[in-house]
Amino acid sequence: MNLKNKIAIVTGASKGIGLATVKILLENNVKVAGWSRSKTDISHPDFLNIQMDIRDIQSVENAYNQTIAHFGKDIHILINNAGLGFTALFEELKVADWHQMFDTNVNGIFYTTRLVLPQMKKIEEGHIINISSIAGNTGIETLSGYCATKFAVRGLSQALYKEVRNFGVKVTCIYPGSVQTNFFDDIDSITANENMMQPGDIASTILHCLTSSPNYHHVEIEVRPLQPKGKVK
């Protein structure tokens, strides 16, 4: 895709992978609507920050309407990045935490994607990138609820790409290993550290996918830190 003057929506845009993705898209002449619960600290003529709640379908629809009113109805790129996780033994996982993870990590993707797809199919151009996790490929103890949501993202992505590929719309699912972000603030057993991948690394992978030739489709990409525990001493 030629990115100049294309329009993108990035969810979870205020920090981490989302913020890095917004920055790299703006550097490549994309017009970006950054959706997030908190304010995104970016000032750029091609950036629109919309504070919203991805878990609330009405909030999502309001954000979408604000986006197309500002940029126009042809949304070419959707980066479904918003997500969170809680750690607990299965029987000790709070019901509220279970629902919050599914509302954010799965329902949010459904709410956003259903809005942009009809126009993408109509113009026969679009790229939806869903940020899953290696927890979407393998079970991890004390992260059963989070794994369940990310396996759901995997299945959703695999099914959706087959539905829309003949309309010229790409769907890519990315499975990052550990990334140094605020995600680990709520994970007591893991502390974010410099041996993890950086948000900019994932953003560069997203850019690579978006700029591929029209008939070249990255369906799934798994990325991990090379030396997660640092260099061997």
Characterize the structure shown.
The structure is a single chain. Helix 4 (144-164) links the parallel strand 5 and strand 6. The model has no long low-confidence stretch (mean pLDDT 94). Helix 1 packs across helix 5 and helix 2 runs parallel beside helix 3 (95-123). It is globular and about 45 Å long. The chain has helices spanning 16-27, 57-71, 95-123, 144-164, 199-210; strands at residues 7-11, 31-36, 47-51, 77-80, 126-131, 169-176, 220-223. The protein has 5 helices and 7 strands, in the order E-H-E-E-H-E-H-E-H-E-H-E. A 7-stranded parallel beta sheet has the order 3-2-1-4-5-6-7, sandwiched between helices. With 233 residues, it is an alpha/beta fold. The protein has a single domain (7-223), classed as NAD(P)-binding Rossmann-like Domain (Rossmann fold, 3-Layer(aba) Sandwich).
Shape: globular
Largest sheet: 7 strands, parallel
Could you state the order of secondary-structure elements as H and E?
Answer: EHEEHEHEHEHE
CATH H level, superfamily name: NAD(P)-binding Rossmann-like Domain
Structural class: alpha/beta
**CATH architecture grouping:** 3-Layer(aba) Sandwich
The amount of beta strand, in percent, is 15-25%
What's the CATH first level? Answer: Alpha Beta
CATH topology type: Rossmann fold
**How many angstroms separate the termini?**
44 Å
Instruction: Provide the gyration radius in Å.
Output: 17 Å
Number of helices: 5
Count of individual beta strands: 7
Numbering strands along the chain, what is their spatial order in the largest sheet? 3-2-1-4-5-6-7
